[in-house]
Structure prediction request, 120 residues.
Amino acid sequence: MSPLEIIQKLYQEDGIRNSNLLNELFSDDFVLEWDNSKGKVIMSKEDVLRLANELKQNYHFSKVKVIDSIISENKIVVRYTHEVATIENPKEIFSIAKVIVIWQYNDDKITAGYQISSPG
Prediction:
């Protein structure tokens, strides 16, 4: 699978909330460095899988709208918005985050992520 296909699969198949897909796409030593409104967080693959399960449980609907992507030798930069609908109000869709992430990959696996996000 090409790096672009990996990233497309991640976003088109609701990979942000799909721990099985993330487990398949991420290398075992995957690390995410995430700067958000609460500060900097370093997450292991297991941490991200737990977060995916929490998102799955807390939101009825989730969609990523990719705005831009740039591909280099072993990195892809993606800018997107993350939209959700809550379980309590599944008909109302709203943006929860604006995100820029750099995915690093090697041998058909995502090995690292460097992410900056701000509230919707």
In short: Residues 45-58 form the longest helix (14 residues). DSSP finds three helices and six strands in the chain.
